[in-house]
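Hi support team,

I'm filing this because I wasn't sure whether my run with zinc ion finished correctly. The job status page said complete, but I'd like someone to confirm that the output block is well-formed before I use it downstream. Pasting the exact inputs I used:
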Amino acid sequence: MKGKPVKHFSRFLFFVALSLATLSLTLGQTPIPSNYDSLAQAIVREALGSNHSYALLNDLVIKVGNRLSGSPANAKAVAWARNTMERLGFENVRLEPVMVPKWVRGNVEEAFILHPDGKQERLNIVALGGSIATPNKGITAGVVEVKSFEELRSLGAAAKGKVVFFNRPMDRTLMTTFAGYSGAVNQRGRGAVEAAYAGGVAAIVRSMTTRLDDVPHTGGMGYADTVAKVPTAAVSTVGAERLSALLKEGKNIRLQIKLSAQSFPDVESANVLGELRGTEKPEEVVVIGGHLDSWDKGQGAHDDGAGCVHAIEALRILKSLGLQPKRTIRAVMFANEENGLRGGTAYAAQERLGEKHIAAIESDAGGFAPRAFGVSEPAYEKVLAWASALRFVGIDRVQRGGGGADIGPLMRKGVPGLGLIPEGHRYFDYHHSDSDTIDKVNERELALGSAAMALMAWLVAQEGL
Ligand SMILES: [Zn+2]
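And here is everything the job wrote out:
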Protein backbone atom coordinates (compact mmCIF):
# COMPACT_ATOMS: atom_id res chain seq x y z
CA MET A 1 0.00 0.00 0.00
CA LYS A 2 1.69 3.39 -1.18
CA GLY A 3 1.43 7.01 0.37
CA LYS A 4 0.93 8.02 4.09
CA PRO A 5 0.96 4.72 6.07
CA VAL A 6 -1.47 5.83 8.83
CA LYS A 7 -4.18 7.07 6.45
CA HIS A 8 -4.01 3.87 4.42
CA PHE A 9 -4.09 1.75 7.57
CA SER A 10 -7.25 3.45 8.90
CA ARG A 11 -8.88 3.06 5.47
CA PHE A 12 -7.78 -0.59 5.55
CA LEU A 13 -9.39 -0.97 9.01
CA PHE A 14 -12.57 0.65 7.79
CA PHE A 15 -12.85 -1.82 4.90
CA VAL A 16 -12.19 -4.77 7.22
CA ALA A 17 -14.93 -3.59 9.60
CA LEU A 18 -17.32 -3.03 6.70
CA SER A 19 -16.74 -6.46 5.18
CA LEU A 20 -17.08 -8.12 8.57
CA ALA A 21 -20.37 -6.38 9.19
CA THR A 22 -21.63 -7.36 5.73
CA LEU A 23 -20.48 -10.92 6.32
CA SER A 24 -22.29 -11.31 9.64
CA LEU A 25 -25.50 -9.73 8.33
CA THR A 26 -25.67 -12.25 5.45
CA LEU A 27 -24.79 -15.17 7.76
CA GLY A 28 -27.14 -14.51 10.52
CA GLN A 29 -28.77 -11.14 10.80
CA THR A 30 -26.65 -10.18 13.78
CA PRO A 31 -29.33 -8.49 15.85
CA ILE A 32 -28.98 -5.07 17.30
CA PRO A 33 -27.45 -5.44 20.75
CA SER A 34 -30.15 -4.97 23.40
CA ASN A 35 -29.95 -3.86 26.97
CA TYR A 36 -30.93 -7.42 27.90
CA ASP A 37 -27.68 -8.89 26.61
CA SER A 38 -25.84 -8.58 29.90
CA LEU A 39 -28.80 -9.95 31.85
CA ALA A 40 -28.90 -12.92 29.47
CA GLN A 41 -25.25 -13.60 30.19
CA ALA A 42 -25.85 -13.35 33.95
CA ILE A 43 -28.71 -15.82 33.64
CA VAL A 44 -26.47 -18.25 31.73
CA ARG A 45 -23.70 -17.96 34.31
CA GLU A 46 -26.15 -18.69 37.14
CA ALA A 47 -27.76 -21.61 35.31
CA LEU A 48 -24.47 -23.26 34.34
CA GLY A 49 -22.58 -22.28 37.47
CA SER A 50 -25.14 -23.58 39.96
CA ASN A 51 -25.89 -26.73 37.98
CA HIS A 52 -29.12 -26.62 39.98
CA SER A 53 -31.27 -27.80 37.05
CA TYR A 54 -29.62 -31.20 37.04
CA ALA A 55 -29.79 -31.46 40.82
CA LEU A 56 -33.50 -30.69 40.68
CA LEU A 57 -34.17 -33.25 37.95
CA ASN A 58 -32.16 -35.81 39.85
CA ASP A 59 -34.27 -35.06 42.92
CA LEU A 60 -37.48 -35.62 40.96
CA VAL A 61 -36.49 -38.84 39.25
CA ILE A 62 -34.87 -40.33 42.38
CA LYS A 63 -37.50 -39.29 44.91
CA VAL A 64 -40.50 -39.85 42.62
CA GLY A 65 -39.49 -41.64 39.40
CA ASN A 66 -42.04 -42.18 36.66
CA ARG A 67 -45.38 -40.69 37.61
CA LEU A 68 -48.34 -41.72 35.50
CA SER A 69 -51.61 -39.86 36.17
CA GLY A 70 -53.63 -41.51 38.88
CA SER A 71 -50.69 -43.47 40.29
CA PRO A 72 -49.32 -43.12 43.85
CA ALA A 73 -46.10 -41.79 42.27
CA ASN A 74 -48.10 -39.04 40.59
CA ALA A 75 -49.45 -37.94 43.98
CA LYS A 76 -45.85 -37.92 45.26
CA ALA A 77 -44.87 -35.76 42.30
CA VAL A 78 -47.53 -33.19 43.17
CA ALA A 79 -46.21 -33.03 46.75
CA TRP A 80 -42.63 -32.86 45.45
CA ALA A 81 -43.45 -29.91 43.19
CA ARG A 82 -45.25 -28.00 45.92
CA ASN A 83 -42.51 -28.61 48.49
CA THR A 84 -39.84 -27.64 45.96
CA MET A 85 -41.56 -24.36 45.09
CA GLU A 86 -42.09 -23.54 48.77
CA ARG A 87 -38.47 -24.43 49.56
CA LEU A 88 -37.30 -22.11 46.77
CA GLY A 89 -39.41 -19.27 48.17
CA PHE A 90 -41.92 -18.88 45.35
CA GLU A 91 -45.04 -16.85 46.13
CA ASN A 92 -48.62 -18.12 46.25
CA VAL A 93 -47.62 -21.74 45.96
CA ARG A 94 -50.84 -23.74 45.65
CA LEU A 95 -52.58 -26.73 44.18
CA GLU A 96 -55.50 -26.54 41.77
CA PRO A 97 -57.25 -29.91 42.00
CA VAL A 98 -58.25 -31.72 38.81
CA MET A 99 -59.73 -35.15 38.23
CA VAL A 100 -57.53 -37.37 36.06
CA PRO A 101 -57.93 -40.80 34.47
CA LYS A 102 -56.43 -43.80 36.22
CA TRP A 103 -55.08 -46.48 33.94
CA VAL A 104 -52.82 -49.21 35.32
CA ARG A 105 -50.55 -51.26 33.07
CA GLY A 106 -50.59 -54.41 35.22
CA ASN A 107 -47.85 -57.02 35.48
CA VAL A 108 -48.46 -58.95 32.31
CA GLU A 109 -47.50 -57.62 28.89
CA GLU A 110 -45.90 -60.12 26.58
CA ALA A 111 -46.04 -61.29 23.00
CA PHE A 112 -44.66 -64.27 21.15
CA ILE A 113 -44.32 -65.13 17.48
CA LEU A 114 -45.58 -68.70 17.17
CA HIS A 115 -44.01 -70.66 14.33
CA PRO A 116 -45.82 -73.63 12.72
CA ASP A 117 -43.07 -75.92 14.05
CA GLY A 118 -43.88 -74.88 17.59
CA LYS A 119 -40.92 -72.57 17.98
CA GLN A 120 -41.70 -69.37 19.90
CA GLU A 121 -39.97 -66.02 19.61
CA ARG A 122 -40.47 -63.30 22.22
CA LEU A 123 -41.31 -59.80 21.02
CA ASN A 124 -40.71 -56.79 23.27
CA ILE A 125 -44.03 -54.97 23.64
CA VAL A 126 -45.72 -52.47 25.92
CA ALA A 127 -49.45 -51.90 26.29
CA LEU A 128 -50.57 -48.53 24.96
CA GLY A 129 -52.05 -46.21 27.54
CA GLY A 130 -55.78 -46.80 27.91
CA SER A 131 -55.72 -50.27 26.36
CA ILE A 132 -57.97 -53.01 27.71
CA ALA A 133 -56.55 -56.36 28.84
CA THR A 134 -56.60 -59.59 26.86
CA PRO A 135 -58.22 -62.70 28.33
CA ASN A 136 -55.81 -64.35 30.81
CA LYS A 137 -54.77 -66.95 28.28
CA GLY A 138 -54.06 -64.13 25.83
CA ILE A 139 -55.12 -63.65 22.23
CA THR A 140 -53.57 -65.87 19.58
CA ALA A 141 -54.24 -65.12 15.93
CA GLY A 142 -52.75 -64.64 12.48
CA VAL A 143 -51.30 -61.24 11.59
CA VAL A 144 -51.97 -58.74 8.83
CA GLU A 145 -49.38 -55.99 8.28
CA VAL A 146 -50.44 -52.56 7.00
CA LYS A 147 -48.84 -49.15 6.60
CA SER A 148 -52.02 -47.07 6.67
CA PHE A 149 -55.70 -47.10 7.55
CA GLU A 150 -56.50 -46.91 3.85
CA GLU A 151 -54.48 -50.07 3.23
CA LEU A 152 -56.28 -51.80 6.10
CA ARG A 153 -59.69 -50.81 4.76
CA SER A 154 -58.66 -52.10 1.34
CA LEU A 155 -58.04 -55.56 2.84
CA GLY A 156 -61.75 -56.08 3.33
CA ALA A 157 -62.40 -59.35 5.19
CA ALA A 158 -58.74 -60.38 5.20
CA ALA A 159 -58.21 -58.71 8.58
CA LYS A 160 -61.14 -60.47 10.26
CA GLY A 161 -60.04 -62.41 13.32
CA LYS A 162 -56.43 -61.23 12.89
CA VAL A 163 -53.98 -59.11 14.84
CA VAL A 164 -53.57 -55.90 12.84
CA PHE A 165 -49.91 -54.86 12.69
CA PHE A 166 -49.42 -51.14 11.90
CA ASN A 167 -45.89 -50.79 10.62
CA ARG A 168 -45.44 -47.39 9.00
CA PRO A 169 -42.14 -46.08 10.43
CA MET A 170 -41.59 -42.47 11.47
CA ASP A 171 -40.15 -40.77 8.36
CA ARG A 172 -36.48 -40.47 9.26
CA THR A 173 -35.69 -38.30 6.20
CA LEU A 174 -37.37 -35.30 7.79
CA MET A 175 -35.18 -32.63 9.43
CA THR A 176 -37.28 -32.46 12.58
CA THR A 177 -38.18 -35.68 14.37
CA PHE A 178 -41.42 -34.08 15.53
CA ALA A 179 -42.53 -33.93 11.90
CA GLY A 180 -41.77 -37.65 11.55
CA TYR A 181 -43.73 -38.31 14.75
CA SER A 182 -46.76 -36.35 13.62
CA GLY A 183 -46.75 -38.29 10.37
CA ALA A 184 -46.90 -41.70 12.06
CA VAL A 185 -48.54 -41.30 15.46
CA ASN A 186 -52.13 -41.73 14.19
CA GLN A 187 -51.35 -45.45 14.04
CA ARG A 188 -50.86 -45.41 17.80
CA GLY A 189 -53.77 -43.10 18.57
CA ARG A 190 -56.42 -44.63 16.34
CA GLY A 191 -55.04 -48.08 15.46
CA ALA A 192 -57.34 -49.90 17.88
CA VAL A 193 -60.47 -48.33 16.40
CA GLU A 194 -59.44 -49.02 12.81
CA ALA A 195 -58.41 -52.59 13.65
CA ALA A 196 -61.80 -53.20 15.27
CA TYR A 197 -63.67 -51.75 12.29
CA ALA A 198 -61.77 -54.21 10.11
CA GLY A 199 -62.77 -57.11 12.35
CA GLY A 200 -59.34 -57.42 13.94
CA VAL A 201 -58.99 -58.97 17.42
CA ALA A 202 -56.02 -56.85 18.56
CA ALA A 203 -53.67 -54.15 17.28
CA ILE A 204 -49.90 -53.95 17.48
CA VAL A 205 -48.09 -50.79 16.46
CA ARG A 206 -44.46 -50.12 15.54
CA SER A 207 -42.91 -47.92 18.25
CA MET A 208 -42.77 -44.19 17.54
CA THR A 209 -38.99 -43.83 17.25
CA THR A 210 -36.45 -43.52 14.42
CA ARG A 211 -34.01 -45.64 16.40
CA LEU A 212 -33.64 -49.31 15.62
CA ASP A 213 -33.52 -51.03 19.01
CA ASP A 214 -35.45 -53.52 21.07
CA VAL A 215 -37.04 -50.97 23.42
CA PRO A 216 -40.80 -50.54 22.95
CA HIS A 217 -42.32 -47.04 23.32
CA THR A 218 -45.72 -46.63 24.92
CA GLY A 219 -48.10 -43.70 24.51
CA GLY A 220 -51.75 -42.73 24.49
CA MET A 221 -54.40 -44.39 22.36
CA GLY A 222 -58.18 -44.02 22.09
CA TYR A 223 -61.30 -46.09 21.57
CA ALA A 224 -64.60 -45.18 19.93
CA ASP A 225 -68.08 -45.92 21.26
CA THR A 226 -69.11 -47.06 17.79
CA VAL A 227 -66.98 -50.23 17.72
CA ALA A 228 -65.64 -52.94 20.03
CA LYS A 229 -62.52 -52.30 22.09
CA VAL A 230 -59.51 -54.44 21.18
CA PRO A 231 -56.25 -54.79 23.18
CA THR A 232 -53.44 -52.64 21.78
CA ALA A 233 -49.69 -52.63 22.25
CA ALA A 234 -46.53 -51.15 20.75
CA VAL A 235 -43.66 -53.38 19.61
CA SER A 236 -40.00 -52.39 19.47
CA THR A 237 -38.65 -51.40 16.05
CA VAL A 238 -36.37 -54.46 16.06
CA GLY A 239 -39.43 -56.62 16.79
CA ALA A 240 -41.41 -54.85 14.06
CA GLU A 241 -38.64 -55.52 11.52
CA ARG A 242 -38.51 -59.19 12.54
CA LEU A 243 -42.28 -59.67 12.35
CA SER A 244 -42.48 -57.89 9.01
CA ALA A 245 -39.62 -59.97 7.56
CA LEU A 246 -41.33 -63.23 8.55
CA LEU A 247 -44.62 -62.06 7.04
CA LYS A 248 -42.89 -61.03 3.81
CA GLU A 249 -41.32 -64.52 3.62
CA GLY A 250 -44.87 -65.82 3.77
CA LYS A 251 -44.24 -67.72 6.98
CA ASN A 252 -47.47 -69.04 8.44
CA ILE A 253 -46.88 -67.47 11.82
CA ARG A 254 -49.34 -66.46 14.53
CA LEU A 255 -48.99 -63.92 17.29
CA GLN A 256 -49.86 -64.47 20.94
CA ILE A 257 -50.42 -61.30 23.00
CA LYS A 258 -51.11 -61.08 26.74
CA LEU A 259 -51.98 -57.78 28.44
CA SER A 260 -53.38 -57.20 31.94
CA ALA A 261 -54.01 -53.43 31.80
CA GLN A 262 -57.02 -51.94 33.56
CA SER A 263 -58.85 -48.63 33.77
CA PHE A 264 -60.29 -47.36 37.04
CA PRO A 265 -62.54 -44.43 37.98
CA ASP A 266 -60.91 -41.00 37.78
CA VAL A 267 -58.90 -39.84 40.78
CA GLU A 268 -57.92 -36.42 42.07
CA SER A 269 -54.60 -34.90 41.11
CA ALA A 270 -53.63 -31.25 40.80
CA ASN A 271 -51.88 -28.55 38.83
CA VAL A 272 -49.12 -27.07 41.00
CA LEU A 273 -48.62 -23.29 40.84
CA GLY A 274 -45.94 -20.93 42.21
CA GLU A 275 -45.13 -17.34 41.32
CA LEU A 276 -42.94 -14.31 41.22
CA ARG A 277 -45.51 -11.59 41.75
CA GLY A 278 -45.42 -8.60 39.41
CA THR A 279 -44.40 -5.27 40.94
CA GLU A 280 -46.25 -2.98 38.50
CA LYS A 281 -48.91 -5.16 36.83
CA PRO A 282 -49.36 -8.17 39.13
CA GLU A 283 -52.71 -8.97 37.55
CA GLU A 284 -51.01 -9.57 34.20
CA VAL A 285 -49.72 -13.14 34.15
CA VAL A 286 -47.01 -14.93 32.18
CA VAL A 287 -47.46 -18.69 32.55
CA ILE A 288 -44.37 -20.87 32.22
CA GLY A 289 -44.67 -24.59 32.54
CA GLY A 290 -44.38 -28.24 31.65
CA HIS A 291 -46.35 -31.34 32.52
CA LEU A 292 -45.64 -33.16 35.78
CA ASP A 293 -47.06 -36.52 34.80
CA SER A 294 -45.10 -39.02 32.74
CA TRP A 295 -45.66 -42.48 31.38
CA ASP A 296 -44.94 -45.40 33.70
CA LYS A 297 -41.74 -46.27 31.82
CA GLY A 298 -38.21 -45.13 32.52
CA GLN A 299 -38.03 -42.00 34.72
CA GLY A 300 -39.80 -39.43 32.54
CA ALA A 301 -36.50 -37.51 32.62
CA HIS A 302 -36.82 -35.79 29.23
CA ASP A 303 -40.61 -36.14 29.08
CA ASP A 304 -41.31 -34.00 30.85
CA GLY A 305 -39.12 -33.85 33.92
CA ALA A 306 -36.89 -31.51 31.92
CA GLY A 307 -39.77 -29.12 31.15
CA CYS A 308 -40.87 -28.97 34.78
CA VAL A 309 -37.31 -28.31 35.89
CA HIS A 310 -36.93 -25.61 33.20
CA ALA A 311 -39.98 -23.76 34.55
CA ILE A 312 -39.09 -24.06 38.24
CA GLU A 313 -35.45 -23.19 37.55
CA ALA A 314 -36.47 -20.15 35.51
CA LEU A 315 -38.10 -18.59 38.57
CA ARG A 316 -35.26 -19.70 40.87
CA ILE A 317 -32.62 -18.17 38.59
CA LEU A 318 -34.48 -14.84 38.37
CA LYS A 319 -34.90 -14.85 42.16
CA SER A 320 -31.22 -15.67 42.67
CA LEU A 321 -30.33 -12.63 40.56
CA GLY A 322 -32.57 -10.49 42.79
CA LEU A 323 -35.05 -9.85 40.00
CA GLN A 324 -38.74 -9.17 40.60
CA PRO A 325 -40.73 -8.81 37.37
CA LYS A 326 -43.16 -6.07 36.43
CA ARG A 327 -45.81 -8.66 35.60
CA THR A 328 -46.43 -11.92 37.44
CA ILE A 329 -44.49 -14.96 36.26
CA ARG A 330 -46.35 -18.14 37.23
CA ALA A 331 -44.76 -21.57 37.05
CA VAL A 332 -47.39 -24.22 36.40
CA MET A 333 -46.78 -27.96 36.70
CA PHE A 334 -49.63 -29.25 34.54
CA ALA A 335 -51.35 -32.50 35.42
CA ASN A 336 -52.20 -35.32 33.04
CA GLU A 337 -50.72 -34.24 29.70
CA GLU A 338 -50.00 -37.76 28.50
CA ASN A 339 -53.47 -39.30 28.57
CA GLY A 340 -56.17 -36.68 28.82
CA LEU A 341 -54.83 -33.10 29.02
CA ARG A 342 -57.04 -32.55 32.06
CA GLY A 343 -54.55 -30.22 33.74
CA GLY A 344 -54.16 -27.83 30.81
CA THR A 345 -57.89 -27.87 30.20
CA ALA A 346 -58.74 -27.21 33.85
CA TYR A 347 -56.14 -24.44 34.16
CA ALA A 348 -57.61 -22.53 31.20
CA ALA A 349 -61.20 -23.09 32.36
CA GLN A 350 -60.54 -21.86 35.89
CA GLU A 351 -62.10 -18.49 36.61
CA ARG A 352 -59.38 -16.02 37.64
CA LEU A 353 -61.08 -12.77 38.53
CA GLY A 354 -59.11 -9.67 37.70
CA GLU A 355 -56.32 -11.59 36.02
CA LYS A 356 -55.18 -11.32 32.40
CA HIS A 357 -52.92 -13.89 30.84
CA ILE A 358 -50.55 -12.14 28.45
CA ALA A 359 -48.56 -15.23 27.43
CA ALA A 360 -48.00 -18.92 28.07
CA ILE A 361 -44.60 -20.54 27.59
CA GLU A 362 -44.19 -24.32 27.56
CA SER A 363 -41.24 -26.69 27.55
CA ASP A 364 -42.18 -30.22 26.55
CA ALA A 365 -39.59 -31.31 24.01
CA GLY A 366 -36.84 -32.61 26.23
CA GLY A 367 -33.82 -31.32 28.08
CA PHE A 368 -31.51 -31.07 25.08
CA ALA A 369 -29.61 -27.92 24.04
CA PRO A 370 -32.05 -25.07 23.39
CA ARG A 371 -32.18 -23.97 19.76
CA ALA A 372 -35.33 -21.99 19.08
CA PHE A 373 -38.66 -20.74 20.31
CA GLY A 374 -41.84 -21.33 18.37
CA VAL A 375 -44.11 -18.33 18.80
CA SER A 376 -47.77 -18.03 17.93
CA GLU A 377 -49.09 -14.99 16.09
CA PRO A 378 -49.39 -12.11 16.89
CA ALA A 379 -46.43 -12.31 19.26
CA TYR A 380 -43.89 -13.41 16.64
CA GLU A 381 -42.62 -9.97 15.54
CA LYS A 382 -42.23 -8.76 19.13
CA VAL A 383 -40.22 -11.81 20.15
CA LEU A 384 -38.05 -11.55 17.03
CA ALA A 385 -36.85 -8.19 18.31
CA TRP A 386 -35.27 -9.97 21.28
CA ALA A 387 -33.04 -12.12 19.06
CA SER A 388 -29.84 -10.50 20.34
CA ALA A 389 -30.38 -11.38 23.99
CA LEU A 390 -31.77 -14.82 23.08
CA ARG A 391 -28.51 -15.72 21.36
CA PHE A 392 -26.70 -15.62 24.66
CA VAL A 393 -28.81 -18.55 25.87
CA GLY A 394 -28.24 -20.56 22.69
CA ILE A 395 -31.47 -19.59 20.91
CA ASP A 396 -30.58 -18.77 17.33
CA ARG A 397 -34.04 -19.06 15.82
CA VAL A 398 -37.49 -17.63 16.47
CA GLN A 399 -40.04 -19.42 14.33
CA ARG A 400 -43.68 -18.80 13.58
CA GLY A 401 -46.12 -21.07 15.30
CA GLY A 402 -45.52 -22.73 18.61
CA GLY A 403 -46.78 -23.49 22.06
CA GLY A 404 -47.41 -26.81 23.70
CA ALA A 405 -50.17 -29.31 24.48
CA ASP A 406 -50.80 -28.07 28.03
CA ILE A 407 -51.04 -24.41 27.05
CA GLY A 408 -53.21 -25.22 24.01
CA PRO A 409 -56.48 -24.55 25.88
CA LEU A 410 -55.16 -21.12 26.98
CA MET A 411 -54.03 -20.36 23.42
CA ARG A 412 -57.49 -21.25 22.13
CA LYS A 413 -58.73 -18.47 24.44
CA GLY A 414 -56.44 -16.04 22.58
CA VAL A 415 -53.41 -16.12 24.85
CA PRO A 416 -50.14 -15.98 22.84
CA GLY A 417 -48.21 -19.26 23.13
CA LEU A 418 -44.49 -19.93 23.03
CA GLY A 419 -42.75 -23.30 22.97
CA LEU A 420 -39.11 -24.03 23.71
CA ILE A 421 -37.53 -26.00 20.86
CA PRO A 422 -34.39 -27.86 21.89
CA GLU A 423 -32.24 -29.94 19.56
CA GLY A 424 -34.60 -32.77 18.68
CA HIS A 425 -32.60 -35.56 17.10
CA ARG A 426 -32.46 -37.73 20.24
CA TYR A 427 -35.87 -37.00 21.77
CA PHE A 428 -37.72 -39.93 20.24
CA ASP A 429 -34.86 -42.32 21.02
CA TYR A 430 -36.06 -42.15 24.63
CA HIS A 431 -39.64 -40.82 24.40
CA HIS A 432 -42.24 -42.83 26.40
CA SER A 433 -39.84 -45.71 27.06
CA ASP A 434 -37.60 -47.29 29.67
CA SER A 435 -34.75 -45.39 27.99
CA ASP A 436 -36.02 -42.01 29.24
CA THR A 437 -33.68 -41.85 32.21
CA ILE A 438 -31.54 -39.10 33.71
CA ASP A 439 -28.29 -40.52 32.35
CA LYS A 440 -29.60 -39.44 28.92
CA VAL A 441 -29.70 -35.81 30.08
CA ASN A 442 -26.65 -33.57 29.76
CA GLU A 443 -26.24 -31.19 32.71
CA ARG A 444 -25.22 -28.19 30.60
CA GLU A 445 -27.89 -28.68 27.95
CA LEU A 446 -30.56 -28.91 30.66
CA ALA A 447 -29.24 -25.80 32.42
CA LEU A 448 -29.23 -23.82 29.17
CA GLY A 449 -32.85 -24.81 28.61
CA SER A 450 -33.66 -23.33 32.03
CA ALA A 451 -31.71 -20.20 31.11
CA ALA A 452 -33.66 -19.85 27.87
CA MET A 453 -36.99 -20.19 29.69
CA ALA A 454 -35.87 -17.74 32.41
CA LEU A 455 -34.85 -15.12 29.87
CA MET A 456 -38.00 -15.49 27.78
CA ALA A 457 -40.27 -15.29 30.83
CA TRP A 458 -38.42 -12.16 31.97
CA LEU A 459 -38.56 -10.47 28.57
CA VAL A 460 -42.31 -11.07 28.29
CA ALA A 461 -42.94 -9.99 31.90
CA GLN A 462 -40.95 -6.76 31.40
CA GLU A 463 -41.87 -5.84 27.86
CA GLY A 464 -45.32 -7.41 27.47
CA LEU A 465 -46.47 -8.91 24.13
ZN1 LIG B 1 -44.46 -34.62 27.14
